[in-house]
Amino acid sequence: MSWQARIDEALEQRRQHGLLRTRTANQQGAGRWHLQDGQRWLNFASNDYLGLSQHPAVIAGWQQGAARYGVGSGASGHVTGYSEAHAGLEQALADWLGYPRALLFISGFAANQAVIAALAQKPDRIVADRLSHASLLEAAHLSPAVLTRFRHNDAVALHAALAKPCAGQQLVVTEGVFSMDGDSAPLAEIAAVSREAQAWLMVDDAHGIGVLGEQGRGSCDAAGIHPELLVVTFGKGFGVSGAAVLCSESLACYFEQFARHLIYSTAMPPAQAVALHAALTCVQQGDALRARLTRHIQRFRDGAQQLPWQLAASHTAIQPLIVGDNHAALALSATLRERGIGCSAIRPPTVPPGTARLRITLTAAHEDEDIDTLLEALHDAAGR
Among all residues, which ones are annotated catalytic? Predict the structure, then answer.
């Protein structure tokens, strides 16, 4: 089979099963509204949970950073790409989250890949929650270590997996809030089991940082734990992009020597680091935004109880409606779009077969009337 024939066959299979992904260019960023081709939809597909992508202080931070540093870093941080803006943000993050060091990465995907690739060796074992993000599982698969996946959010299953003989070290990998189901990991139990087995714990808190815990410190703060490795990303609660790894001084030094994503990638623009520092201040002072988001979540859940689709057991900003069939999920998304509501249909392989869903995300940028509009449209669709 030729290259082209292989590509054509793979695309046709995706089309037949309702799995073909497409991208559409919007004209208004990640705020309350999604604007495309002159039409406007309420945006229930964004991870901008606190609405900080549109915050004047964050926008001004980027502008001020660009005026001082320009629009790019120009090199890897190991060459000339590491600026005072990067160093200041790393120190502020470390102080805020209670770690000796923070290291910035261009994305959460890159941070997860870098950590696992640098740490995992042939005798080791990575024990990961079955529903961990693709960046974590892919990195584990590509590493020389053995990958064992334990039953989702099951500390007993984790204990059993860690109890099996291992010639090397063990790294437990989980998320704080899971991106497709919106549920939270039992982090206190997972940390206790990991500690008992003398395993290190790595928590990817992409969807918890900024939103949960005191001052928005995230899932680990809310659970009262301090994992050896904490990965926080800035494309959700912070409203920007990028990521940081929080760890010990010696581990940070180790990553500076052996984390290839850190060493060989161009550093994030200094202007972005300035904007992130402004976003950090907004997060720290964001109790009112978090309270507003919590009210929206409860309003939606109260109104969605009688819908015929399965409402996931989530009390976070991620509120999945499990439709099941791929084509039915696409049709429901299209029906909402006709009503002026943008909401993504998520299908396999992102989620398990038979669990296609609408992934509804709520933000502090929404108004009460937006939640009511969404609920009315869903109930009308259910009555068709």
Answer: 47, 133, 175, 179, 204, 207, 236
